[in-house]
Recover the amino acids of this structure.
């Protein structure tokens, strides 16, 4: 069991590092930060954990708990507003571009959970966003799940 846990930890660290490297390279290759990102700050909460009992609804309207996604694979958790016109689409597109640049497949070696924190977002909006970003990721790779907070 410790060997399996160690391999999972290495995979999570490798994925995190690769995403940061790819995102940084993408930003440098495209010049300065976009206008929408110029005043954005990042407040790290190193060591903090997300409560596993947070309740969501997925893109079909099915009630789920965050803990259902945290099984044996590492998880990338992305929080966004689905109707946000500026920063959230940039972040989601950056995530997809970073995922495309690595050799691991979302849904196979790790999971990606994108959750809206806007209480006005609906399963229909989540389903539309899921289709958009899955199409960007690649038609073959359809195991990535998308969900949103039900607040």
């Amino acid at each position: 069991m410790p060997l399996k846990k160690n391999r999972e930890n290495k995979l999570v660290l490798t994925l995190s590092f690769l995403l940061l490297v790819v995102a940084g390279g993408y930003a440098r290759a495209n010049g300065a930060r976009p206008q929408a990102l110029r005043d954005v700050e990042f407040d790290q909460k190193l060591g903090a954990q997300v409560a596993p009992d947070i309740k969501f609804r997925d893109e079909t309207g099915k009630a789920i708990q965050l803990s259902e996604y945290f099984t044996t694979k590492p998880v990338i958790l992305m929080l966004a507003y689905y109707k946000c016109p500026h920063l959230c689409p940039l972040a989601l597109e950056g995530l997809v571009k970073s995922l495309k640049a690595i050799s691991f497949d979302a849904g196979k070696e790790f999971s990606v959970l994108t959750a809206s924190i806007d209480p006005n977002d609906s399963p229909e909006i989540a389903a539309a966003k899921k289709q958009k970003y899955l199409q960007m990721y690649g038609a073959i790779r359809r195991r990535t799940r998308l969900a949103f907070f039900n607040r």
In short: The longest helix spans residues 2-29. Residues 74 and 110 are 5 Å apart (CA to CA).
